[in-house]
Design a protein that fits this description.
The strands form 4 sheets. The chain has a 9-stranded mixed sheet with strand order 1-9-2-8-7-3-6-4-5, with helices on both faces. It contains 19 helices and 22 strands. The chain is an alpha/beta fold. Helix 4 runs parallel beside helix 5, helix 13 packs across helix 14 and helix 14 packs antiparallel against helix 15. 34% of the residues lie in helices and 20% in strands.
Length: 602
């Protein structure tokens, strides 16, 4: 590899070479240029070996920042690299994420989640003390990863021409990524993965996925050896599958769960090797798809489904949809079976259906609430996203709706510039709606309570799953465990960034706080118990058995489903007096005259 960057891509397709030779080619690319793309299969050593190899390069005098899409992957990568160095996490290798960090003055490699990196670069555009930024598992195309890469390219072009950027994945759209990066060297390595026998077990159209998964697990357990990793779309399907598996195996087999709402201890337990003489069956969401190795797994069973958030700008609702995985995700999942020995990947669909799968998972930027992105762009001094190099630019309707929302919240001025309130909202590390709530609450002396509520809403599983947010907030205040403690400390840190205000000794109800975050989701009961209409004109429903179903008014913090039949997931009770006091300036009175056809009345 000797051509200069920009003269066209240099693609090296490497056979099963020793890891040292592949690393040498990567180091050569980054010594001669400042950008490179690496495509290598699961188990090839991308996540752990590449950062360690960079430590000894003459040009690498500062820190190496390694981005991971999930907290579990970040902790696992840091732990593995530290063990290879014979050190503890927090020495030369550490990690940094929203609720936890282990770094020290000695740390040279920081493994960070993608959202943390976006804040790092926004707060320090020159990335002082950083030599290299590595975007791992970039195929997942999270909003934060796309934004982080766009910012890093902007910084490299304008401020830091010595900054190295490396984009890595096992299943990467190499041509598009290389084009965005100006056609740098592209290294494709086959790695040293073991052979994988891909099998199919077609699922009947009406068969529940947990029934099909249970049947496949029992078959695989009886016919083959080794631990099993089973991919299901979400927590509900995992719990139902676990119920069906209960009592089917002896003491030598343990069933463990792995999904986002579990504590750090429970997640770490799931990826730990099975004790001697035991087999594990790990029931996981796509959280286990990338960047982690579960030792002993040689059988993967893939439901072929995943759950993705889809944002509707016209309603402001983000709903979860269960969809088919992409071919890239299916390959990633199958690759988990061949990391340490020959394995089996069992797919619960007909082999002919694979060709119909999308090539890659749709980028999150195309189906997300963009209010946080728009706020960060305003801080960066960019009002038009075309000013940055996005692999997929933000969609116009969602971008414009985000600008309207931020203007209503007081974060942007009429020209789209950042206001003083907008600057403070950015510093709070919260979604814009919740940041606006915290600022308004602080003015009334309820800042800390608002920060607790904001953290509760952004960290799934805290305080239980009750729809009533007052009940969840009560439980969260008394909840024990490392994750709850870390979340309360985060709330304290956010509160410390609010304007200094005296704190009221009164305990305020959640609904009164949420009015300042979701004024468009104030809901009035209509047509009977559990049926509501929101201020934005959309309907929303609760099961009649829920306590809040009898409420006359609610403010809704979370809901899902189509606009015509949205289902309330989190809400709090409010009164008409609360609305009149808290939102007096937003109330408009009007008289309407219309003809009601069923009753034939005006």
């Amino acid at each position: 590899m000797t051509a200069a960057q920009g003269a066209g891509p240099i693609t090296r397709s490497l056979p099963r070479l020793p890891v040292t030779e592949v690393l040498g080619i990567i180091m050569e690319a980054l010594a001669q240029g400042t950008r490179a793309v690496l495509s290598a299969p699961p188990g090839a050593g991308k996540t752990t070996l590449v950062p360690l190899a960079l430590l000894d390069q003459a040009w690498c005098t500062g820190k190496i920042i390694l981005l991971e899409p999930r907290r579990l992957a970040a902790r696992a990568a840091a732990s593995r690299m530290a063990s290879l160095l014979g050190e503890q996490v927090g020495d030369r290798v550490g990690y940094r994420m929203r609720l936890d960090n282990k770094v020290s003055a000695k740390t040279r490699i920081e493994v960070v989640t993608e959202g943390v990196f976006a804040r790092m670069i926004l707060d320090d555009p020159e990335l002082n003390g950083v030599s290299t930024v590595i975007f791992d598992e970039f195929h997942e195309r999270s909003l934060d990863a796309d934004f982080g890469l766009a910012l890093a390219l902007d910084v490299q072009s304008a401020l830091r021409d010595d900054l190295r950027l490396l984009v890595m994945s096992a299943t990467l759209d190499v041509d598009r990524v290389a084009g965005l990066l100006g056609e740098p060297p592209v290294i494709k390595s086959e790695g040293r993965t073991f052979p994988i026998d891909i099998q199919h077990r077609d699922r009947a159209p009406n068969e529940r996925i947990e029934d099909a998964m249970t049947r496949a697990i029992v078959e695989a357990h009886a016919n083959d050896t080794g631990s099993i990793l089973a991919f299901l779309p979400g927590q509900a399907e995992i719990l139902r599958t676990a119920e069906r598996l209960a009592g089917r195996f002896g003491a030598e087999t343990v069933v463990v769960l792995l999904y986002g709402n579990l504590s750090q201890r429970e997640q770490d337990l799931a990826i730990r090797p099975a004790p001697a003489g035991q087999r594990k069956i790990v029931l996981a969401t796509s959280i286990a798809e990338t960047s982690i190795t579960i030792d002993g797994v040689r059988i993967v069973i893939d439901s072929g489904l995943q759950r993705l958030p889809v944002f509707e700008p016209s309603t402001g609702i983000t709903r979860l949809e269960t969809v088919r995985v992409s071919r890239a995700s299916a390959d990633q999942r199958a690759g988990r079976a061949g990391r340490t020995e020959p394995g089996i990947a069992m797919r619960l669909w007909h082999p002919g259906q694979t060709a119909a799968l999308q090539a890659f998972t749709p980028p999150q930027i195309l189906a997300s609430d963009l209010s946080g992105l728009v706020l960060d762009l305003a801080h960066w001094g960019v009002q038009d996203p075309k000013g940055l190099a996005f692999l997929d630019p933000p969609p116009g309707p969602a971008f414009n709706e985000a600008k309207v929302l931020l203007t209503q919240l007081g974060a942007l001025d009429p020209q789209g510039g950042l206001t003083e309130k907008g600057r403070l909202m950015r510093e709070l590390a919260l979604p814009p709606r919740l940041a606006a709530m915290a600022i308004s609450a602080a003015e009334e002396g309820f800042g800390r309570q608002a920060c607790l509520l904001a953290v509760l809403l952004t960290e799934q599983g805290l305080g239980g799953s009750n729809i009533d947010l007052d009940e969840r907030l009560r439980r969260f205040r008394n909840e024990r465990g490392d994750r709850a403690d870390a979340a309360r400390k985060l709330a304290d840190r956010i509160f410390s960034n609010l304007p200094r205000r005296s704190q009221s000794t009164e305990t305020v109800l959640a609904g009164r706080l949420l009015l300042h975050a979701y004024p468009d989701r104030i809901a009035l009961q209509r047509g009977g118990r559990g049926r509501f209409v929101m201020a934005n004109g959309r309907g929303a429903e609760l099961q009649e058995t829920e306590r809040l179903a009898a409420s006359q008014m609610l403010v809704i913090a979370d809901l899902t489903g189509r606009a015509a039949q949205a289902r309330i997931l989190a809400a709090a009770e409010i009164s008409r007096a609360d609305v009149e006091v808290e939102l007096a300036g937003a109330i408009r009175e009007s008289e309407e005259c219309f003809f009601d056809r069923p009753s034939r009345q005006v």
